[in-house]
């Protein structure tokens, strides 16, 4: 009997746009080039969405409070985010990915995994270079790429020669590459786990590997087995092609807490952003998907999170419908009138395929 053929080693790319939002702003406004650009709204509660490499030299990072970024870099140029523009560029980049493989797993607007095992080009490295060249030619933006036998190694590699770089980890290089890395570079090892491992004198991947599977399992259970696998460079998780959208939403944190009756203009403003994202989602697919449920999200001044939702008989068909339903959902909030709110969000959920919605409408017509 012939033996089962051994599948070829996987060839995984992680492609990550460089300082994406800030780079788009610098591309579109020549006056911003070479300047420390911070993409964020100003305000005590705003956070940094992105920072150019010029701003990063001063310690400015994504998710940092905007007021801290301003202290670190007083000369920074603050630019409010324009997510519709960023999504449009992201679609261009995804179209480039699709020329090389159907196996694309987006992680966000600016990064994705690609399985190019069956790519038409001779090597994964050549595929990555072709993708990066096309991105620059068609968007005038740069991207960095990691090439490796699996997802977690590819993601680490893409950060190795940023910006505008590529780093390749070949199968026979995995063990030597991982050994000197701090354990915090492994996926799922955050500050808390890093501290727990440090208590065991485990600070590098080589220490983790030397600890052995039995000791790690005894201390951390199933997670211990996963740590052992990662220390050996084992990650069999597949690249999952883009999954159907489950929800599209926009939210905002206020500079000052507001009562419920003052939220309408903010709800309608966020409804505009959500509706724009919904239109993009419908246009991106050959057969659109219909959102049936409107969601209102609220967070009180004392951080209590509330959600209210409604699935009307007829799905919202316009921005006005979305805004009206979201505002009406405030009547379902049963907290005292004195309650103040620090955050509001508007979302669309309950997605189904358009053809399925049409079939249901034919079976159960609206009276």
Describe the structure.
Helix 4 packs antiparallel against helix 5 (124-139) and helix 10 (213-220) packs antiparallel against helix 11. Among the domains are: 20-81, MutS, DNA mismatch repair protein, domain I (3-Layer(aba) Sandwich), CATH 3.40.1170; 174-231, DNA polymerase, domain 1 (Orthogonal Bundle), CATH 1.10.150; 247-363, Dna Ligase, domain 1, CATH 3.30.1490. With 367 residues, it is α+β, with helices and mostly antiparallel strands. Strand 5 (104-108) and strand 6 form a beta hairpin. The protein is 38% helix and 21% strand. The radius of gyration is 24 Å and the shape is globular. The strands form three sheets. Strands 5-6-1-7-8 form a five-stranded mixed beta sheet. A four-stranded antiparallel beta sheet has the order 9-12-10-11. A three-stranded mixed beta sheet has the order 3-2-4.
């Amino acid at each position: 009997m012939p033996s089962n053929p051994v599948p070829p080693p996987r060839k995984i790319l992680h492609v990550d746009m460089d300082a994406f939002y800030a780079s788009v702003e610098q591309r579109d406004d020549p006056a911003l080039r070479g300047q420390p650009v911070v993409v964020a709204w100003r305000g005590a509660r705003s956070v940094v969405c992105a920072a150019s490499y010029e701003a990063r030299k001063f310690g400015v990072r994504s998710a940092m409070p905007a007021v801290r970024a301003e202290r670190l870099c007083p000369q920074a140029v603050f630019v409010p985010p324009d997510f519709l523009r960023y999504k449009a560029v992201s679609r261009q980049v995804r179209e480039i990915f699709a020329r090389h493989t159907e196996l694309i797993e987006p992680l966000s607007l600016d990064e994705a995994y690609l399985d190019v095992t069956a790519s038409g080009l001779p090597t994964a490295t050549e595929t990555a270079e072709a993708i990066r060249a096309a991105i620059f030619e068609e968007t005038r933006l740069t991207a960095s790429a990691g090439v490796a036998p699996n997802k977690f190694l590819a993601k680490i590699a893409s950060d190795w020669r940023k910006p505008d770089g590529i780093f390749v980890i070949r199968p026979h290089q995995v063990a030597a590459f991982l050994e000197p890395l701090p354990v915090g570079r492994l996926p799922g090892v955050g500050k808390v786990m890093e501290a727990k491992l440090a208590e065991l004198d485990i600070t590098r991947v080589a220490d983790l590997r030397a600890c052995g599977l039995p000791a790690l399992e005894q201390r951390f259970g199933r997670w211990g087995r996963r740590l052992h696998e990662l220390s050996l460079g084992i990650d069999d998780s597949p690249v999952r092609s883009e999954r159907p959208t489950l929800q599209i939403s926009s939210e905002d944190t206020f500079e000052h807490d507001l009562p419920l009756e003052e939220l309408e203009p903010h709800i309608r403003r966020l409804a505009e952003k959500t509706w724009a994202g919904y239109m993009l989602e419908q246009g991106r697919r050959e057969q659109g998907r219909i959102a049936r449920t409107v969601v209102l999200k609220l967070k009180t001044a004392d951080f209590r999170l509330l959600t209210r939702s409604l699935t009307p008989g007829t799905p919202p068909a316009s921005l006005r419908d979305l805004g009206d339903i979201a505002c009406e959902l405030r009547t379902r909030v049963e907290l005292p009138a004195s309650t103040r709110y620090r955050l509001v969000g508007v979302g669309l959920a309950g997605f189904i395929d358009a053809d399925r919605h049409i079939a249901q409408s034919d079976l159960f017509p609206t009276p």
